[in-house]
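Tetratricopeptide repeat-containing protein: structure tokens wanted.
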Amino acid sequence: MFRSPFFIILILLFCNLSFAQKADVVRFLKAWSCKDKTQTQKAEETYLVLKKEYNPNKLEAISKDLDSYLDRDKDHRLKARIYMFQVLGKREFSLILTKQDTLKVAQVIKIARNLKDDQLLAEVYALAADIDFQGGYLLYNLKALELQRKIGFGYFSFVQNRFFGASIALYRTHDFKESIEYGKQCLAFRNMKSQNWDPMVYIFQLDVIGASYIALGKYEDAIDYYKQIIDTVSSKAYNGETKELWKGIANGNIGRCLFYQGEIQQALPLIDAHLAIALKYEQWNNVAIAENSKGEIFLKQRDFLQAYSSFKKALSAAIRSDRLEDKVKAAEGLMKSFANTGNTDSILYYQKAHSGYLLKQAEVVNNGKLSSMNSKMLFDNGQRDLENANASVSKLKQTRNIIIIGIVIFAVFLLLLYNRQALKNKLEKQQIIFEALQAKAEVDKAKNSLQQFRNQMVEKDQLIVNLRQSLQKSVLENNLDEAQIGKKLLAYVLVTDEEWVKFKDDFNKVYPLFYPRINAVLPSLSSAEERLASLIFLQMNNKEIASTLGIGVDSVARSKRRLKQKLPLLEEQSLESYILSLV
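Answer:
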């Protein structure tokens, strides 16, 4: 039968690929059979082949061959290595990990414990950390480091990644001092195992340490680490985009530090440059950081309109990047911006948003710590399970132990659930108390200010009485025109325009419904009539009102009559009682 040359080439190519794949299986199994301290190095050589020569399709094909081998050979060490290779391969090609993959990691942990092989256990702990197995990112990094230190760091190639993992996990749970400690240990491996470094891990670690120092208020230390980022990305190991982006990020954070140190003029250009770079590369978390920093500067300068604009942009960027830390800061900035403009509705809106973000941030931090504790308990329970299984002599004992462990886990779950709800309730209660105290303090402050206003009016009124008496004496002695002098005294204004503005602001805080209601009744109310109505509401008599407004008592009476005619009073109702009834 005739076969085309193309068909024959395809058959030969398939046979060649199949042969190469079989050769890889043999080579990998030989490397994975190693039991001494060179086992990690030999395993990493197979992972290097995976990274350089494989793709998702080829990974799937060799995984089937390796599974077929496990059907024939029950070697537990090889089973552990094959499972690790398969999970690492899916991570390498960004394939979604399934529940089956997490079960494989759990089985490898169990196999390594049964084999009493701490080196293999250290490797699988590192893998468990990388996939955030059972939510134990921090725990498994620390467990891997513990065993790697015991065996010797020299037998492992990527120790710095474990220190980096611990450092960033501790930063997320706001354990900043511990994050810095592990971060510095990560950087110490730069000169020891430089060939195994991912250049970006070094930059990320410098950034985490710098951010931790900023959180601790140690700005000079933070500046030092961000300068190291600038020096590092200037080398040939980093491409143009990476250089530009990270120089912008580092300069922006140096700018933040300078601002916190009071150097606003030096800080602002660096922060502006950071913002421009972040927008260019659509790095929304950095946009939020830069805009929040600008907002803080504008607040410091009391430019509340500009502050509002920056914080609004920061919140929008933070929502896009889904960074709670930036959402909290932006909402707090917006709340402060409106607090200085007296926009009550906006203050309440952003205060509620700020409280919600704070609660969620506390929950995330708390869950991170609870997750580590929970994973540790699962880890310890797993060891107890192993010991019980080895010691068991009957199925009854195994069943009993499983039931006990189930009860313990369920009890722990209930306890954690209770603690979480208790924390939420506590935070909500504290927020309610804080808001109530804050509102009461604002009202009390305004009331005190109004009382001081009245006291000042009394004092100034007494001053005029004293002046009148002195001038009357001068009239008798110097033959001055008493009527003319009285007219000038009457024109003396006791309250300046600035004082009226402050008076109205304080009055509005204590009686927020008064002005809206009187303006609703009388939309054409003039500023003079508004002042008169305010003083009537404070139950000041005609003489006090005359002194305050700098007019005569007769003028006050006439002004009251005109105001009364404009308002919808009942037949027997007085102007004073009507105005008091508005609130």
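The chain is about 80% helix and 0% strand. The chain has a mean pLDDT of 82.

Cheers.
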